Amino acid sequence: MAIKRPSGLSKSYHDTFNSVNERVVEDISLEFFYKPHTITLLGVSIAAVVYSSFIRDERDVDANIRAGIYCVFFFFIIVSVLAFPNGPFTRPHPAVWRIVFGFSVLYLMLLVFCLFQNYKTVKQIIYWFDPELEHFHIDMDREYGVNCSVITFENLWNHMDVFALAHFLGWAFKALLVRHLGILWAVSVMWEFTEIAFAHLLPNFVECWWDALILDVLLCNGLGIWVGLRICKMLEMRE
User: How many other C-beta atoms can be found within 10 angstroms of the C-beta atom of residue 102?
Assistant: First the structure.
């Protein structure tokens, strides 16, 4: 029986898929960290779980359920390290990005589960995982989304808080990771729509139009994106 050879299009797709999902690590300096240690990792993981299960107090049912769920998450991350593809990133180590992808899958499944719950149920689930959050409240030392018709330098400056620094640093690091101007600006704008959608949950998401457009998108996010891409260019990083 003759073996069907891949066509030019399918071969190109196969090569592209491998280059993105199974990128080979070049310039390996420490061979130990790039050799398979599947049995060792599984053995250490099982020993850690067995040890923790026998030394803990089992009289609290809620604590037992929480510990079991955390253990499931832990083993899912271990399986992610062993089974998931390398992905397009290889530094500092492919295992790091497998772990990141594993957490992303867990987060996606959590969001799918929350999609079928109401707001009160989701809050109760969060309180069950961390009871201290039930008494948590945001200290609103300042008001957001007020005097939006007054556009002065003093008013703009008063809205420069710790969140402005978080916007700048966050988008500078995102630029170092993504390295694509169009994608960065698209995500930046979409995040502002996300803040508008969840303004009823977090008071600091209630912003004036000039706060969201000028301070966040153009100034903090835009400046962070520019600085991050400039650093990429200075270090001659791959695009």
Answer: 19
Proportion of the chain above pLDDT 90, given as a percent: 15
Facing residues of 87 across strands? 22
Q: Where are the beta strands (DSSP E) in 90-212?
A: none
Greatest mean pLDDT range, 46-60, 69-83, 190-204: 69-83
* Interval 185-218: pLDDT, tens: 999 989 888 888 887 777 777 777 777 777 788 8
The DSSP element (H or E) to which 110 belongs, if any, is helix 94-115
* Structure-token pair, residue 42: 């599984």
As a whole number of angstroms, the distance between CA 105 and CA 76 comes to: 10
Q: In the structure encoding, which two tokens stand for residue 55, read together?
A: 């030394």
Q: Which amino acid makes up residue 161?
A: D
Rounded distance between C-alpha atoms, residue 231 and residue 126, angstroms: 39
- CB neighbourhood size of 221 (10 A): 25
At 87, phi and psi to the nearest 5?
A: 85, 180
Please tell me whether residue 195 adopts helix, strand or coil conformation: helix
Q: Domains of the chain: which residue ranges? A: 17-23+34-136, 141-239
92 preceded by cis ω (within 30°)? yes
Q: Which residue bears the tokens 């790091």?
A: 96
CA–CA dist 71, 78 (Å, integer): 11
Give the burial class of 220: count Cβ atoms within 10 A of its Cβ; 0-12 exposed, 13-18 middle, 19 or more buried.
Answer: buried
Q: Which residues of 24-48 are buried (b: 16+ CB within 10 A; e: fewer)?
A: eeeeeeeeeeeeeeeeeeeeebeee
Residue 236 CA to residue 239 CA, distance in Å, equals 9
